[in-house]
Amino acid sequence: MVVFEGVARRDEWPELPESVREAVADRLGGTVVSAVNQRGGFSHGMASVLVLADGRRAFAKAVRGSDSLARAYRAEAAAAQGLSALIPTPEVLFTLEHDGWFVVVFESVDGRHPDLSRPDELQAVLALLTHMAEALTPSPLAGIPTVAEKFRPLLRYWTRFAEQGPPPDLNRWAVRNLERLAELETRWLDWSGGETLLHTDLRSDNLLIDASGAVAVVDWAWPCRGAAWLDLANLAPAIATAGVHPDPILAEHPATADLAPAAIDSFLCALAGYWSKQSRRPAPPRSPGLRSYQARAAQTSLTWLKSRTGWF
After folding, report:
1. Which among 31, 85, 209, 278 has most CB atoms closer than 10 A?
2. pTM of the predicted structure, to 2 decimals
3. Is it the case that residue 35 has pLDDT exceeding 70?
């Protein structure tokens, strides 16, 4: 997906009930002397690096148990359990439910989001994807839905536009090719089968690169089983937004080198339809940049899809 430039209005550590903060500190075995709130991403839940009196650090995410976001936080905590032994991803230290709040605490990773326009950092990210495909096949997690089960209902908006009428401000190229897009958007399912554990939400702000150039993946809120190529295809629009043409990468990367071009075309089409729809919804009050991000993602994907299909 495309690099996010906005700022979510997150809960912050001091806003948590004192009893919850004390429970976290007890589990950490020390006093929390400061908390650095993380500003990236779209979620309104707390995401902070906690600094303890003895200098130790931990990364904590917290949300009210009744919040709609709690399901994603719980899914992330469950999926991330044990993955650090297989791939570079922060270890889950513990979870707790206390006074109506859900908290998951990870080891803290000292890093920043990679710049996909830099060849060395992009290559490090691509190498991580190769390693993930190898280390996470077959999926080490039980009970994970397939990518088809999870995303088939969400990635069919061109069909809905064709049946119900497109938005009046829809991209003119998309309007001219609406029937073609509706036919194309589900074909990726023919190539989706597999037993790889997929992240399904790869973008720069869900990756961290450290001073040595090593890359780790974070935020496992949407794990699925499927074909390994899908994670790279999901990241490809972010690569395009960074000013790097994804096609040569897809032609050479082990996950996609032998893949039929129609699979990429179809998945890209489905993503563009999803973003085209979502970008027109009202903005969530605590994530004001989300809709503009989705609009940019839709435009980037449609421009790239036009160049791949040759449609006019």
Report:
1. 209
2. 0.92
3. yes
